[in-house]
User: What shape does this take?
Amino acid sequence: KIVYEDRYSEKISTTSISKYLKEEGYVFKKARKVLTSTDPKFREKLAKITKILSNLKPDEKFFSVDEYGPFAIKIQGGRTYTKKDDLNTFPQLQTSKGSLILTAGLELSTNQMTYFYSDKKNTDEMIKLMYILLKEYKDQKSIYLSWDAASWHISKKLKEEIQIVNAKESSPKVYLAPLPSCAQFLNVIESVFSGMAKAIIHNSNYQSVDECKIAINRYYEERNEHFQKNPKRAGNKIWGKEEVAPVFSIVNNCKNPNYR
Assistant: This one.
């Protein structure tokens, strides 16, 4: 308004300015933060993953792999339905009753979760998961493992173990389809972790590690059973409480920081 009046030496109302801008097609929009990766081979790696998925055969399985945790077993906050005048609180300083780490793989063509509880995040746990998947999917021709660039996901020891597996004629072949570095937002399993956290970790007050494990086990048992009865590849609308559809896309943030 001030600029217009100084330039043209005539008065103009804010209503007229708004009308003119609208007629020219201008609207107020908030800038959208774009998720990016510093990996110079970002496009190449993403293209490899999408190509594998688009050509996945019935005797091949593709796993999105990651760990959840460690997280402390204590009173957790979160959003919940309450009466208007009620105030929900939880203590800032607490004594933890223990902690948990989940090491897991989400099979994208069947939406089945395979997981176990770990003491640490390291190569040995990745190798353990690989052998569990090989046993569970022993009738398959090959399995693909996709994970982020954590050091224990790309270690020499792991690659050597994969070579040993692939030398066996009776075992499914194992292939790696790593995510680009600094691109955890592409990891499909993060969506499922976020849904689990919102459903049973937030607003919780488990009295022990075992009690929390029972809730987690029940959640994933029900989830797996649902997709066994209602087959659907990951990437469409997901069952239950996942925050975003678990699908490989550069505009899809599978990792919701509010539920981690």
